[in-house]
Glycerophosphodiester phosphodiesterase
Amino acid sequence: MNNLCVAHRGFSYKSPENTIAAINMAIAEPYVQWIEIDTQLSSDGIPVVIHDFSLDRTTNGTGLVKDHTWEQLQSLDAGRWKGVAFIGEKIPSLDEVLKLSRGRIRLNIELKTKGDMYIGLEKAVLERISYYHMENEVVLTSFDENALRRVKDYNVKINTGLIINNRPIDLMKRLKDLKCSFLSIKASYLNSALTSTLISQGITVMAWTVDNASGMKRLSSMNSGIMICTNRPDVWAATLLNNKPYFWQKIFHKKE
């Protein structure tokens, strides 16, 4: 697998995270094979792509995402904070991102929820994935184990992954109980032994969020199967494509 590059919220170093601009910029790089995005629900049940529960950091709006309708969310500017070149970028719907990504790049879709914050999120997301026939092009991930259980209740065949920022001793049991085939783990908690155990048990491992060359080299030397989630796909390319650009361009060139 050669440490596949996952663009965190799109190419979020150069463009506003979780926007169409960020998605397009990531897709344009032939070495980016996955994009990680975050999904919540508008108050009228539309899956939208945004990370924070609050609108304040990445838009000119205020308050919680869940308290706004899709129409209200569409009136906000989600790009100005990143620079004048991105003024007018909107919070995209999941539909927009799926349509743009289909057949071109795979998506790690994080379900941003906890407790009963978003009743119906899992079903709404799965319905949109099914509409575009992208079941084999996505993995649904979450910190919320109950959200992952609900996904499997709706579609046992869909790939799911647990997100963790620790190293629990019962990790393999939890993954098995949740029927997860994917683990998204903070990079500092990975070591060679854990990685080897996970991969030997059929678990795909993604380390987050690594933006420097030394961190990427550490993961690469640990195991070539570790996917690297980064805000800096450009640093990934400069670090891990060294002396072998032709190989990567040929093997992983994406469809137009």
